[in-house]
Prior knowledge:
Blueprint: E1 10-15, H1 21-32, E2 35-38, H2 39-47, H3 50-57, H4 59-74, E3 79-82, H5 91-98, E4 102-107, H6 110-117, H7 131-146, E5 150-153, H8 159-169
Parallel strand pairs: 1-3, 1-4, 2-3, 4-5
Helix pairs in contact: 1-8, 2-4, 3-4, 4-5, 6-7
Amino acid sequence: MVGIDSHPKNVVLTGFMGTGKTVVGRLLATRLEFDFVDTDELIASRYGPISDFFAGSGEEAFRAVEREIAEELSGDGGYVIATGGRLMLDERNAALLGEGSRVFCLVASPEELVRRLGDSDDRPLLAGVDRLRRIVELLTERMPGYERFEQIDTDGKTPDEVVAMIVERL
């Protein structure tokens, strides 16, 4: 087991939905003996399902809640934090969570993301649209922000293989 003392304050996983942040994050936290926090799960536990929050309060309110969560988590250490797909694209959130931490952006091809995400309606930004086209649009829009962080390609890799890649880079 890798000990906490040999690693940064936190490890933050960012990237588009479906890249494996939650699955990889849980495994990585166990490996590093860190606590695991998924910001979307934390928000859902406080406010109910994210799709309902989006529908009732809108994206702007959701982004404000993400900023509150980033502020809350920024003071602590010993976490693997899986963020929502846009959380680290906000400069303030990135500064707060990135300070003293290692940030990795998990990436996957649009086709792989469509496969992983399936037809579920629990992704508000993909509801009722051509998923592949919308994913390509969103990735194109977000890529400049994602490229600021160290990239980990998850295509064709198991979660354990992705964890091993991250641990090797730490």
